[in-house]
From TrEMBL:
SUPFAM superfamilies the UniProt entry points to: Nucleotide-diphospho-sugar transferases
Gene that specifies this protein: pseF
A molecular function (GO) term: N-acylneuraminate cytidylyltransferase activity
Record flagged with keyword Transferase: yes
Protein name: Pseudaminic acid cytidylyltransferase
InterPro entries attached to this UniProt entry: CMP-NeuNAc_synthase, Cytidylyl_trans, Nucleotide-diphossugar_trans, PseF
Keywords, comma-separated and alphabetical: Nucleotidyltransferase, Transferase
Organism: Pseudazoarcus pumilus
Pfam families tied to this protein: CTP_transf_3 (PF02348)
Recorded superkingdom: Bacteria
Amino acid sequence: MRLAIIPARGGSKRIPRKNIKVFCGKPMIAWSIEAARDSGCFDRIVVSTDNDEIASVARHWGAETPFMRPAELSDDHATTMPVIAHAIRWANAHLASVDFACCIYATAPFVQPDDLRNGLTKLENSNFDYVFSVTSYAFPIQRAIRINANGRISMFHPEHMNTRSQDLEEAYHDAGQFYWGRAAAWLEGKAVFSEHAQPVILPRSRVQDIDTHEDWERAEALFRLLDKES
């Protein structure tokens, strides 16, 4: 079985009710649910939550909430890996054996069905444990600077002070949208960011972290622009 798991706990501090707050006309989580559904990749789409309101919204938009996430996986210190492993174990016991599981963040309105399909194809046709979305940094990380306690500047990599930008290796970061993985890798707790993972490279125009109100406003503006262009 191919399982989509959308983690969406309650209790967001910086943006209250973040997972179901209306984003460009729909609850935020609805965009992830619809992308999962439209991709055609999944036998089941499950939302892992500890919150009744989130569960109700998720079901309305077509996901399943067959269990409530336990309290020990729902506090501010809970990380993604054990949440996904918990959902896979539940599915193995109550639904069917999981072969591939994809974690799709609830706050990823830019996730596209084609990218999910691309990720699954890469995983199925390889011996990698994971495939996940990445995008490139807009500025060379080798030219990054730090500001010390005295307000003075220094370079992280002073050896590149005079290196031309075009001569520096391009760097990438996690796009924070989806993480395909083999069920066994999730259950064993294998690291996602490792040589056992392969990327799906996204354009920077479709990547935006949404952690603050400013992020939210920027993301909505970008989303509307992309929607208008399409």
